[in-house]
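thought: fold this chain, then report.
action: predict
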Amino acid sequence: MESQLQLGKQWLEQLLGLMSLDTTVSTDVSTEGFEKVATDSNSVWLNIDTSSLTVEQKAELIGNKGEGIDSIQYLANTILNLSTDSELQNSFVVELDGYRVKRHQELAALTQQAVDKVRQTGEEAEISGLSSAERKQIHSLLENVEGLTTESRGQEPDRRLIVRLQS
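observation:
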């Protein structure tokens, strides 16, 4: 695990350097106060230090609706696990300025609203405006909730998550 932590740190620092961003990355295997949603015990957190970044640089890294940070995280997971046996692969989570923790809280609230609506009315609830990673996260959150099921409908960029009673 230690070698994966260092590999992830070096890779992300090199990527940020290529983007002309002078910052460092710290690593962790968990983040306090954040439930490991859609991650497992092999999660490696890559935390970008924001102390030397401008507000504009942080906004650019996060991107519109998190697309930038999601893309960086996707690249990290793809590249860093490329030549690793599947049972030894890690899930890399890229964090910047508390974005993942804040977004998780927003998603948890949206998910709870949808669950409440479905349970109160019996009608399905739709959650739109999610990235594919966020849809996966909510699917994982609700996969073991008794009496409910989830599915994705539509085509990108208008794909949405549906929460409904299990038939």
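thought: worth noting. The chain has five helices and six strands.
final: tokens above.
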